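ok so dumb question maybe but i'm new to this and my supervisor (M.) told me to 'just get the structure for Cystathionine beta-lyase' and walked off. so i did the thing. is this what she meant?? sequence i used:
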Amino acid sequence: MDYIDLALKYGGFTSLDKVYLSRKLLDLTEEQKLAFITPPPSVINAYFAEIYQKTSPQAATDYYLDLSKQLQLFSDQPSFAEEKPFIRLNLSGKSFGFAYQNEEELARVFSEKEEDITPALLFEIAQIFPHYKVFVKDKMAFMLPMAVDEEGLELVESAYLLTEIVASADWMRISGLNQEEVIEAASPYSGQAYYAWSGRRAIIYIQQ
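this is what came out, is it supposed to look like this??
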């Protein structure tokens, strides 16, 4: 692994820093080298926010995923102890963050303090990252760019005026402009739920 090339591409160093980097990295372990060239959390978050605003949410997460791959920032148990940098989020005025767990783009969303994971919170995450599906597993929130097979979905009769319910043998899709009504319409159904957002529509996919 060429740590100088990594430092120049991802760490914010320039070609003028090559001699300095060579001396600083010389006697470090592999882990220490990665830690040295990894940008501080403030820089990573600033780049992420700039890309998010100027380009798109997906471009921002692509940047952070690539950084996580190259600098080995994946974490199974991310926390605000910040052993590795993560992306900070403000959700309903409270401090959250997210970090990737693996190269398959599975990301864990976690809070600074203990917070209930509610459907409203999951929809808030989905609005920020509309290219992801958001779900709960083992009482933890995750997001993933998962495709849902919507072939064969057929309309299900319901009493809801603003919410559409369609179903196939494997999936249900409950969607509408009123988030609270979508949550209520989904409540009688069991299975793994995935929260998504498209335009102005709140969507819950249920894998049956």
